[in-house]
Amino acid sequence: MQLENIIVDATAPGRLGRFWEQALSTRTLIDSEEEGFETRLDLPGGGFLDLCFQPVPHRPTEPQRLHLDLLGGARQLEVAQRLRELGASDLDIGQGEVPWIVLGDVEGNPFCVMEHREVYEDTGPIAAMPLDSADPDRDAEFWSWLSGWQEAPGTAPRTLRHPSGTGPLLELYLEPRPKGPAKNRMHLDMRLEASDDVDQIAREIAVRGGRELDPDWGELPWRVFADPSGNELCLLPAG
Description:
Number of strands: 16
Strand content: 25-35%
Number of helices: 4
Radius of gyration: 17 Å
Shape: globular
Strand order of the largest sheet: 2-3-4-1-13-16-15-14
Distance between the termini: 11 Å
Largest sheet: 8 strands, mixed
Helix content: 10-25%
């Protein structure tokens, strides 16, 4: 398996996807009124992440449990200003005096432009993906098993990174509140390999504290799960 997609719910997928495409200098894979918008971020070391913006009827209002931290460093102010010119806006989410800059994208989803940190070397434009967790130690073990990502230096309670040592960090932070019943507006998808046994993986997810979900989304070619803290994820068929 490999971590392949960052999925984002959007009322206007094309508009939101094009904002992020310009923000990250990615390349369009899908631009469809029915399927949404998908764009590929090529990573240092030859990997990639696809950002997939899928249509939803209403803008999500639940607190965001996964967000993106963008590389700023010495160019932090310049990067933030460029994003404002693309349509981002400054947000006050109670962060107080912090060295990073909090912005909202064109649908109001919070993200950060980060100050210089040595741990961000070779991440590409997405420095980190912070994820809320009820138990960062437990969930780091779960996500490491699921994705193959390994323990890495970082400032979060637990940090994972691709074995190549490149690309963004997956950071596990103690959640400010338990996850509610609403689906996360942003989640991660795993792509199965041809040799993977999805039923065996489903059983192992349950053993490790996750569970399979049965959302009323009609017939799907993938299976939907939650990690031990309730954060949704999908297992996509090999392809």
